[in-house]
Write a structure and sequence with these properties.
This protein is mainly α. The protein contains six helices and no strands.
């Protein structure tokens, strides 16, 4: 019995390691977009991802046909939402999505970067579909606006953000179609 259990544990560990190696980079990038940190140095995003991956590993045998990527992404978004929407835990953000609030970042990352449908996004974060649609539209409008000029920047005009892919509603994008992280912050 002990040998069988050990073989099962080894198989489980190999499967999870393969999943984490394949999906870890994209999930870390999504976490960095949520937290507003640079993907190169993102300690808060790394902590969120590690906690989400730990949860996925703990539930690995119970997934039974469920996509582990979706499960980890869902846990990542919920962990971020719990900490970011709490007024005492808000931290200043940098990066491409710095002008957005936490709720807008979650919706935009899920809808545009990850390509999650409005209905799934709404169910995931506990908002009505209409509210998710409005938040996404507002976030896209904000991202299309020119950033305010900072007095410390000198006479050079601030570079506008690149166009937000996915059109006016952010719909229709699939995994890998949108590259929010390529714009300079």
């Amino acid at each position: 019995m002990r040998e069988r259990r050990t073989a099962t544990d080894r198989r489980r560990a190999r499967e999870f390691e393969a999943f984490a190696a394949g999906a870890g980079g994209r999930l870390l990038h999504a976490a960095a977009l949520l937290t507003g940190e640079s993907p190169d140095a993102a300690p808060r995003a790394q902590r969120l991802l590690i906690a989400s991956l730990a949860r996925t590993y703990a539930d690995w045998d119970r997934l039974r046909g469920e996509d582990p990527y979706d499960r980890t992404r869902q846990d990542l978004a919920l962990r971020f939402a719990r900490t970011a929407w709490h007024p005492r835990r808000r931290r200043p953000t940098a990066g491409i999505l710095a002008r957005l609030g936490p709720q807008e970042r979650v919706v935009l990352v899920l809808r545009v970067y990850e390509g999650v449908a409005e209905e799934q996004t709404a169910a995931l974060i506990g908002l009505p579909v209409e509210r998710v649609h409005a938040i996404c539209a507002r976030a896209i409008r904000t991202m299309r606006q020119k950033p305010p000029r900072h007095p410390a920047a000198g006479p050079r005009p601030a570079a506008p953000p690149g166009p937000v892919p996915g059109g006016g509603t952010g719909g229709g994008a699939g995994r890998g179609d949108v590259r929010l992280g390529e714009a300079r912050s």
